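Database export, one record per block. Field names are fixed; values are copied verbatim from the stored entry.
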Amino acid sequence: MKQKFTVLFDLDGTLVDTAPDLMLAHNHVMKKFGYPTKSTEDIRNLVGKGAGALIGRSIWGQAKKEFNKVLDDKIKDEMVKEFVNFYGKNIINESTLINGVKEFLKWCREQNISMAVCTNKQEHLSNDLLKKIGIYDFFEYVAGSDTFDYCKPDPRHLTNVVEILDGDVKKTIMIGDSETDANAAKAAEIPVILLENGYTEKNTTEIYHNHLIKDFVGIEKIITKYL
């Protein structure tokens, strides 16, 4: 039996533009703990590595040196909990699917392609978002930041999912929007389709990729070359 082709997707900034709701959660936390708030554009540049990194990078970006490390870590933990709690209750107020996503997912299903999500968002938040935005049923597996003992850029986040799907790494492609996705895929020797204007501070020229797209419209042409 011929093994199915597998497409792995990042979530934030790839399938869904979650920045507006992440901004609301981020700013809620920042106000509560006495830090300056951010714009949606700032949030897009901070998102890729999960809630802890989002909060941490925002604080450290302001060079807040008053706290010693121990106190900082304790406060950061409290902030992350507050962020996840608030965001979980407000996960789909303003988030929208990236252009062409649903049509592409339907096409993949028609082609009998296996699909899974590999995200550094917590698994329960990822599942909730995918269900509420109406695309959860397209995916055979969702691996969040806490699904395994490792996550992107560790390539095992991707290769483990391919193994669970009974797929083949040589018949797999990764679609993402940041160096976190690209570096994981590169280490796993999986080709990368990179979205422009991703949730990253880096330019696309600085990020490893095999194909560059602005959205999912017409991406079927790229995938067909691999089938």
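Remark 1: The radius of gyration is 18 Å.
Remark 2: The chain has a mean pLDDT of 88.
End of record.
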